Amino acid sequence: MSEAWERPIYRDRHGRGERGVLTGIWRPQYRKRSAIFDALAVGQLKRLRTAWPDMINSIQFAVTDIAPTDPLPWEDQQALRSLAYPAEHGKPARIMLFRRPLLNRAIDKHDLQMMIRDELVKRISELSGMSPEEIDPGYTGDWR
């Protein structure tokens, strides 16, 4: 008979059952920061889509970790949190959120949610030509 450590399946440390995961996918500890960020961004987009369905449906949204390149000479030299690309040559307008700069500045989940909201509203206003306050009356513009 082989020793316990030579068997392919180990028991838990008390010898009662197989080792399993410590948290299940339904538990909050399982969710990663990136998944939380994505869920908050989708929630804000759904909220904005109810108010401005035609405008939001004509824009593509994406999330990536960091900006693809260093800021161009005419762009703001701060850490980019998002970019808006106007529609051109048959391509729809696009907004890209950068996850890392927003996550690094956020203190808690509520703070992150407000920063995502402000970035989305600011970029949508750039593309639409409307003021941010018209798009979202709760927009303050000074959220971190």
From TrEMBL:
Pfam families registered for this protein in UniProt: Zincin_1 (PF06262)
Name this polypeptide is given: Cytosolic protein
Source taxon at top rank: Bacteria
Gene3D superfamilies: 3.30.2010.20
